[in-house]
Amino acid sequence: EQPVEAGRIEKMSKSKRNVIDPEEIIRSYGADTARLFMMSDSPPERDMEWTSSGVEGASRFIQKIWRMTTQGDQARPICAAGEAMPACLDDSARDTIAACHMTIAGFDEDIERFRFNRCVAALYTLTNTITDLKGDSPSEQWARRFGLETLAQLLAPIAPHTAEEMWQNLGHDTMLATLPWPRADQEWLVQDTITLPVQVNGKLRGNIDVSTDAPKEDVEKMALALPAVQKILEDSTLKKVIVVPNRIVNVVV
């Protein structure tokens, strides 16, 4: 068996004649792909490792999100531009809208701190969230449009040409660059439910999803109903249940 050797990494230098001409990348993949790759690779304080696979991955992502805003056979239906948000929202639509607002909030903080690689990672995550929205109900169509519009707006500082085309594909006449920056709605940033770890004598036995304002008694019942906890209680005596609101549940036997 031959050992696997990693390729060497060296700094680009004119004297070493190993500089990659950005014009070649732009001609082959476009300026947006070059910008996206350079921002996604690493934090600004670290050296960037230039790889062909990384550039190709950025190009595939640009093409994917552009296709999501076209009206091809594979495009999911969306509501008309400017349509008001439905009064009743499906859970899947609500989750998608909340994810958009949380992405906007995180994006603002990362831009302020020049963490552009995290901004790009957030775009990838938001894209997956939109893709996972499979339903076509009125509220889901509205959430899908809101997600795509949010994606285009957040993409604009990184890949402006693609963002403008996406914005036009979504039925808008105005240029995206002339519009205000999106703002996260604080009401959507508040979580309705949280996941609490359940311990028995300090050892993790499972998790429960509860409302943030669930009564202590309800949390205790849900914790004691876990199969792993029930199995322990078959051979042990319950002494007490300690509930730390919105933090943890500890069952003492």
Written account of the structure:
The protein folds into two domains: 22-189, Isoleucyl-tRNA Synthetase, Domain 1 (Orthogonal Bundle), CATH 1.10.730.10; 193-252, Ubiquitin-like (UB roll) (Roll). It is built from nine helices and four strands. It has helices at 22-29, 31-40, 52-67, 91-112, 116-131, 138-155, 160-169, 216-224, 227-233, and strands at residues 193-200, 203-211, 240-244, 248-252. It has a four-stranded mixed beta sheet with strand order 2-1-4-3, with helices on one face. The longest helix is centred in the middle third of the chain and has 22 residues, at 91-112.
Short characterization:
With 253 residues, this protein is an alpha+beta fold. The protein has 9 helices and 4 strands.
